Amino acid sequence: MPSEHETVGAYALGILDDAEATAFEAHLAGCEWCAQQLDELAGMEPMLAALADLPGSGSTPAIGESLSARPSPRLVEKLVDEVSERRAQKRRRSFYMIAAAAALIIAGPLAAVAVSGGSDDGGQVTATPAQSTFRTMSEKKSATDPSTHVSATVGMTQKDWGTQAVLELKNVKGPLKCSLVLVAKNGQRVTMSSWSVPNWGYGVPDARTERAKQPLYIGGAAAFQPHEIDHFEVVTFEGKKLVQVDA
């Protein structure tokens, strides 16, 4: 005779006899774990029809006979485990979708666009969403590093949730992997965005191609308000600072 904990699946399916059901209900009144499991498995009785499709099962019971058809304990356990796993997967998918939506709400389209100006079919340079946003920002800070000669301008917009920023980066050659790091006045460091620099670089004045002459425009976001920010740094993944822009 299985323990009461092992009976929750059979109870949810409605295949216990009266004595077994009464015993389980008495146990259920004081068992929080079984109550939670029963809530997870609620509504499974209609799935009895699916038992006919499983290996080793008999023919599909008639509607009035669904509760009298008693599949083996192993069959019940298999069905219960399968349904529980599917519901867990559904919850995980919902969580990931909510997290992704939250990221898009916070960072907006800037988080998805990290490229320099491109070209349309007519060969004209077109503005990216990040570049268009950069042009509308009224508060901008610029700096050029005397040793690396990399130039950066950071545009900022105050939001209820913190600061939206767009970086304009010039005179940097690759291959590199870089990050825009916000350094707060309290010393905290937050990576706002990251990107790769191709061999030909970004914003290189004497470059051979128009693409390499175009600056990089990339957006980022952080929870700090503008007055809480000390400066911004563009650093490589190896930790080398290419340029610092005071806020």
TrEMBL record:
Lineage per the UniProt record: Bacteria, Bacillati, Actinomycetota, Actinomycetes, Kitasatosporales
Organism of this sequence: Streptomyces bangladeshensis
Compositionally biased tracts (Polar residues): 125-136
Region Disordered, residue ranges: 118-149
Keyword Transferase: no
Domain of life per record: Bacteria
Entry annotated with the keyword Glycoprotein: no
Name listed for the protein in its UniProt record: Anti-sigma U factor RsuA
UniProt KW keywords: Membrane, Transcription, Transcription regulation, Transmembrane, Transmembrane helix
Transmembrane regions: 95-115
Domain Putative zinc-finger: start-end pairs: 8-35
